[in-house]
Amino acid sequence: MSVSASLESGSRFDAWRLYFRPRAATMLLLGFSSGLPFLLTGNTLSYWLRDSGTSLTAIGFLSWVGLAYSLKPLWAPLIDRVDAPLFGGLGRRRGWMFAAQTAVCLGLLAMSLIGPGGGLLALGACALVVAFASSTQDIVVDAWRIEVADNSNELGLLSSAYQLGYRAALLLTDALILISANHLGWQISYSVMAALMGVGFYATFKATEPRRDVPESSDLALPLWTLRGFFDAVVGPFMQFFRTHRWLGLLMLAVISLYQIPNFVSGPMTNTFYHDLGVSKDAVGTIRASVGLIFSLLGIAAGGISAARFGYLRTLVVGILLEALAVAAFVPLAYSGGDLKIFAAIMAVDSFGLSFAGVALVTYMSILTSLGYTATQYALLSSAYAYLGKFLKGFSGQAVDTLSQGRSLMDAYAIFFAGAAAIALPAFILCLFLVRARSSLPDD
After folding, report:
1. In this structure, is residue 2 part of a structural domain?
2. CA distances, 288 to each of 31, 179, 271, 349, 355 (Å)
3. Could you tell me if residue 273 is inside a domain?
4. What's the mean pLDDT in 24-40?
5. Which one of 110, 134, 159, 400 has the fewest beta carbons within 10 angstroms of its own beta carbon?
6. In a domain, 432, yes or no
7. What is the pLDDT of residues 172-189, one digit of tens each?
8. What share of the chain is helix, strand, coil (3-state, %, to 5)?
């Protein structure tokens, strides 16, 4: 039975009381911890590499370390069924949180010590360690968020708190770190980011371990090393998903797989675009930390309100349109000459659109999971939205380099961002089909 079907809705008064529960604050901090490493192995690393003179093609290929986030279903069954080594005493969810956060912290510290000067291979290897550890943290934090929720109101609240913390970390690692790098250097800035993983350590110790109500007769109670236990841990989540959603499961996975492609494909080139446009790191950091923060919060709030008022699927439709608009907004920016007023306006559109779309997708994926398979099924869904996009983004730098032959670099960027926005069309069409197919459901 799905989480959405098993949770009871509370009264409106009870819903407001949920905002003051300690686990909401814990979720906020865990969201921050999950979001902190993401750009440090992606877009922000691209800026550091471009600053050091690395080619766009090499930067694009290095973005493939992010494919680690797409492979989560391979080890999610292990996290669902086995305690973390060394830290099992904290509980299954909290133990894996702490183990993953430790690896992220050490990996970021290693990246800060090596830097581009130590060789792209060594730096890329450390980034890959961080990406794998970060994706492991995502698996267990997502599972914790779904399992500790008492009802659908709290699940929505925790999803919003997660997105708020995640977006705060993205703001820090996409904006404020540029100001830090401009005055303190990239290596010191990455060391500071490693230290900030302490937020995750604190949240892990404050978190409560979810109850694991598994009947002894269930296959979920069988040891992983038995044939039946292994089969149920690895294959069971997928069978349960399609048993619950039947043929619509394929359409759901298709929508999720295509939903974030415009953002993924354009992502590695955004910071290099700012660099080549001539906008200073201080200006980028300041505007994204002010205008970007405000409109990110507005986007998160609007996404949550839309899901509650109009349903998850209709919110998905609006989200993909806003995501396409956010990416397309970079086209006029390419011809702005680096005008900071235009840059600020584009950052407002970008921050609002991507935040709204992020809340829409996370909330929708959360309600599709089944109790007992939370980590594995959510890992499947959150990986499905990343597979194709993370593969295609590796060619983003090569695309801009190719488009720049015979035309200006800004013309090449403009064509690239227009094409990335157009990729949203298939996801938009599939979202409409999904709304039509599921229009009879109460939440839709």
Report:
1. no
2. 19, 11, 12, 11, 13
3. yes
4. 91
5. 110
6. yes
7. 998 889 899 989 999 999
8. 80, 0, 20
CB 326 within 8 A of CB 354: yes
Q: What distance in Å separates the CA atoms of residue 49 and residue 322, rounded to the nearest whole number? A: 30
Q: List all residues 6 or more positions away from 434 whose beta carbon is below 8 Å from its beta carbon.
A: 248, 251, 252, 255, 313, 316
Residue found under tokens 């109500």: 213
* Rounded CA separation 185/220 (Å): 50
Helix, coil or strand: residue 432: helix
Indicate whether 27 pLDDT > 70: yes
Q: Give the CA angle between residues 187, 193, 375 to the nearest 5°.
A: 135
- The residue whose two tokens read 């999803």 is 159
CA distances from 133 to 19, 103, 386, 429 (A): 30, 6, 17, 35
- Give percent above pLDDT 70 in the chain: 81
pTM of the model: 0.70
For residue 172, the enclosing domain spans 18-207+233-437
Residue carrying structure tokens 């110790």: 205
Q: Residue 304 is encoded by which pair of tokens?
A: 């949550």
Whether residue 179 contacts residue 286, with contact meaning beta carbons closer than 8 Å, is answered with yes
| Euclidean distance between CA atoms 52 and 176, whole angstroms | 19
Residue 11 within any structural domain of the chain: no
Domain containing residue 32: CATH number: 1.20.1250.20
Give the type of residue at 417: F
How does DSSP assign 224-290, residue by residue?
TTSHHHHHHHHTHHHHHHHHHHTTHHHHHHHHHHHHTHHHHHHHHHHHHHHHHHT--HHHHHHHHHH
For residue 348, give both structure tokens: 């407002």
Cα–Cα distance measured from residue 129 to residue 103, given in angstroms and rounded to the nearest whole number: 8
CA distances from 182 to 178, 189, 190, 280, 282 (A): 6, 9, 12, 9, 7
- The number of folded domains in the chain is 1
The dihedrals phi and psi of 214, each to the nearest 5 degrees, come to -115, 115
